[in-house]
Design brief:
By secondary structure, this protein is mostly helical. The protein is about 55% helix and about 0% strand. The N and C termini lie far apart (about 30 Å). InterPro entries: SAM, SAM/pointed_sf.
């Protein structure tokens, strides 16, 4: 991912540790960037957090030295991304490596692919 721009929200489940750090900066939780990096928190880990037991949540909060309010903010932002994915609200952008002449084709294929990928995301009440 580009280090100057935050990662694509729709693709959060394939974010690297660095992408998670950029996202944390964007949601005003940048103070946790280093500790998340040290603990290897990537997009796959973030996606799996919705399946955590209470014990796993408490262990994560202790390991990352998070305040409860910050943890709640983290969860709300993850939920916001998941809801936007399910509603198809995320903007599809042409990647830097794709030729501009293929923009329309790329966007159509990407939208179809995204719709199939977000089926696995669960919306919790």
């Amino acid at each position: 991912m580009n280090k100057e721009h935050p990662p694509e929200p729709l693709d959060f489940f394939i974010w690297t540790v660095e992408d998670v750090g950029l996202w944390l900066e964007g949601i005003n939780l940048g103070s946790y960037r280093q500790i998340f990096k040290e603990n290897g928190v990537n997009g796959e880990y973030l996606e799996g957090m919705s399946m955590f037991t209470t014990e796993q949540i408490l262990r994560f909060i202790r390991r990352c030295h998070m305040k409860w309010g910050d943890f709640i903010t983290l969860c709300k932002e993850l939920r916001r991304i998941k809801v936007a994915c399910l509603k198809g609200e995320q903007k599809v952008r042409r990647p830097w490596w794709a030729p501009s002449c293929l923009s329309i084709v790329f966007v159509k294929v990407a939208k179809r692919n995204r719709q199939s990928r977000v089926v696995s995301l669960k919306l919790e009440p």
